[in-house]
């Protein structure tokens, strides 16, 4: 016969602590004498109100000498007649030399009540000199421990706010408990002042969404700025009036009167969003309605519904736009070079930032979102050429997160972007090339248009010696485009990038970046870099192809053995703990570049690692963000030929210049490659299995 399984409940859930029966009351009293005195158990024991048990439980707990501070406060708050516990709490609250008999018991009861039952506090005592003297003498560390939950609460009830204010006024100190208390009072004040405004939030955003085709992120940021600026009742009243008329202002395209620069700046973002939304093709609403439920009738969560609607739009675009093509386009042709595909990707990305206040971005990281997209394609059994719909939707997810980061930024964005060229002027041709410049301007425009004060300098540096490129400057409302011919036989991309970065340092750009002229890396994802650069100490951000949340560049099995070996050798030689040092999509703060550029001398294809090492030597950290490259990997296909052995030799020279001492630091991967004679030979070597110490 099988014994029945036992189920043990937590002590605080025990019926012994929640019963009026006399027999159970006896057991509860025994628990009061012997149970571990954690606050949850004490609270449960004190919740017993039966006359036959409550008094005995109080006396039993009062007789214990092992109650910790939190348990003492609970007991005194709920049973102020517990004399021993009150005395013990008083002794803990005061430094021994400061305790005045007969004077501090009431203060101990008041602090316990402030922590747990503020509605029972005597206001007359708070106004007394006895309270003020005790408050000044109390141990601030103990006060902080007793009031920790109160000081971190989102809301302070009226009695709690009154008592806390009296305590801090009496103390007039700058101990951590006083600073935390002041912050709690400030939060309570703001919440009280802004209460009516906060109740208006949902309706105001809904009204604004009517004029932005449901795009709500900019409206949410504006309302948050409006709320943050309301510090007084008068300001809160003005903000509430503005919230009630915001939709009318947006409809008439005028700027509401507001003194706060932050509110005015975010209103410009709302206006820009409305203008951009009107330019989108009117297809989202139909896709949104169609994506309400799954094929079996289950409803999608609204955050997932945005992904499904985007998936459907991009899938149908591939099916219709390229149905009669002789061969499927590459992802960069479909979602960057083709204006209709690019516009549709931007439409989906805009709605993923927030459609009717629903966005998947705050709820899921990109790795999960990418997994969802693949799962959706698998369940739908969609087999489109080159998985173009997947490339498009994942690129839209990255673009959406990039734009959300730009909208969330407090400081103005001022970008400087270098694009090196050599024998690539054909890519600028709209008829026989990628029309690359038009594409890059369109991608940057979409990213920056929601921030009217944002600016970008796009500098194309042509190192060709045939003078194919013509020096020119093109003015755009937010983007200044310059094409510069800089013939240089001795450079191989590195010279153009480094020269261009140095030029842009003089333009006042706060964030500088570089990328290639081809369309592999979409500039609309540059907001990912900007957000990472806002983290303290970051001196460079790599748009990585090799993170778990990256997409598009490598097959599912990952980089080739040669590429991985190269990366390990770079880590050996330069101690760069990054996964994709050669990625052609990087960004830097201007301050870090000013320090690092004079340390960089390599103008070859290996210049990236020299620059990263110089930034690391300058005391900055390196960060990586996963990007969605518009690239379709084809097995055994190689792009621009590169001599990786020559590049690795350059990295070794960089390491020596940056302080590598082979006598004190081991470089096993570099040594292995040197012994094998080349990267390819080292990568082809069979893995060496460790020899067991017991083998013969």
UniProtKB/TrEMBL annotation:
Domain of life assignment: Bacteria
Cited Gene3D superfamilies: Spore Coat Polysaccharide Biosynthesis Protein SpsA, Chain A
Family note: Belongs to the glycosyltransferase 2 family.
Name listed for the protein in its UniProt record: Glycosyl transferase family 2
UniProt source species: Micromonospora carbonacea
């Amino acid at each position: 016969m099988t014994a029945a399984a036992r189920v043990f409940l937590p002590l605080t859930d025990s019926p012994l602590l929640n019963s009026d029966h006399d027999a159970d009351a006896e057991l509860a009293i025994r628990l009061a004498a012997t149970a571990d005195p954690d606050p949850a158990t004490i609270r449960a024991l004190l919740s017993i109100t039966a006359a036959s048990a409550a008094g005995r439980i109080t006396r039993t707990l009062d007789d214990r000498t092992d109650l910790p501070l939190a348990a003492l406060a609970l007991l005194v708050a709920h049973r102020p007649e517990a004399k021993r516990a009150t005395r013990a709490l008083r002794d803990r609250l005061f430094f021994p030399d400061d305790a005045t008999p007969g004077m501090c018991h009431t203060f101990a009861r008041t602090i316990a009540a402030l922590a747990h039952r503020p509605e029972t506090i005597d206001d007359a005592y708070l106004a007394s000199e006895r309270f003020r003297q005790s408050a000044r003498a109390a141990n601030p560390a103990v006060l902080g421990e007793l009031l920790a939950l109160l000081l971190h609460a989102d809301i302070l009830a009226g009695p709690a706010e009154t008592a806390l204010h009296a305590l801090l006024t009496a103390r007039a100190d700058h101990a951590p408990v006083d600073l935390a208390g002041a912050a709690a009072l400030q939060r309570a004040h703001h919440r009280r002042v802004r209460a009516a405004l906060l109740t208006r939030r949902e309706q105001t955003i809904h009204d604004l969404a009517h004029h932005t085709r449901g795009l709500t992120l900019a409206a949410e940021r504006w309302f948050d700025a409006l709320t943050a600026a309301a510090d007084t009742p008068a300001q809160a009243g003005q903000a509430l009036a503005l919230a009630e008329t915001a939709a009318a202002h947006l409809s008439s395209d005028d700027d509401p009167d507001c003194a706060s620069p932050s509110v005015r700046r975010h209103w410009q973002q709302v206006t820009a969003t409305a203008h951009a939304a009107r330019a989108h093709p009117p297809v989202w609403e139909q896709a949104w309605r169609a994506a309400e439920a799954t094929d079996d009738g289950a409803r999608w969560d609204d955050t997932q519904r945005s992904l499904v609607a985007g998936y459907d739009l991009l899938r149908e675009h591939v099916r219709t736009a390229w149905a009669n093509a002789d061969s499927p386009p590459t992802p960069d042709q479909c979602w960057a070079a083709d204006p209709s595909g690019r516009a549709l990707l931007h439409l989906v990305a805009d709605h993923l930032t927030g459609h009717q206040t629903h966005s998947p971005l705050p709820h899921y990281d990109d790795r999960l979102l990418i997994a969802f997209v693949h799962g959706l394609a698998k369940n739908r059994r969609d087999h489109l050429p080159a998985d173009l719909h997947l490339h498009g939707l994942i690129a839209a997810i990255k673009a959406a997160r990039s734009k959300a980061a730009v909208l969330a930024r407090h400081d103005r964005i001022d970008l400087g972007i270098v694009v090196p060229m050599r024998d690539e002027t054909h890519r600028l041709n709209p008829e026989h090339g990628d029309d690359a410049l038009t594409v890059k301007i369109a991608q940057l425009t979409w990213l920056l248009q929601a921030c009217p004060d944002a600016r970008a300098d796009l500098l194309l540096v042509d190192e060709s010696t045939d003078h194919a490129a013509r020096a020119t400057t093109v003015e755009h409302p937010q983007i200044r485009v310059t094409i510069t011919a800089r013939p240089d036989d001795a450079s191989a991309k590195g010279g153009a990038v480094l020269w261009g970065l140095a030029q842009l340092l003089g333009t006042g750009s706060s964030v500088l970046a570089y990328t290639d002229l081809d369309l592999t890396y979409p500039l609309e994802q540059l907001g990912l870099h900007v957000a990472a650069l806002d983290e303290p100490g970051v001196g460079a951000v790599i748009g990585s192809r090799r993170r778990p949340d990256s997409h598009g560049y490598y097959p599912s099995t990952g980089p080739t053995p040669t590429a991985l070996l190269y990366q390990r050798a770079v880590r050996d030689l330069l101690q760069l703990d990054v996964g994709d040092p050669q990625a052609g999509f990087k960004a830097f703060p201007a301050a870090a570049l000013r320090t690092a550029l004079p340390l960089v001398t390599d103008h070859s294809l290996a210049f990236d690692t020299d620059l990263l090492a110089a930034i690391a030597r300058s005391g900055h950290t390196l960060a990586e963000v996963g990007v969605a490259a518009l690239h379709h990997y084809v097995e055994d296909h190689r792009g621009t030929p590169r001599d990786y052995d020559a590049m690795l030799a350059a990295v070794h020279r960089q390491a020596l210049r940056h302080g590598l001492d082979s006598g004190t630091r081991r470089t096993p991967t570099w040594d292995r490659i040197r012994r094998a004679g080349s990267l390819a030979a080292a990568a082809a070597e069979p893995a060496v299995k460790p020899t067991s110490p017991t083998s013969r």
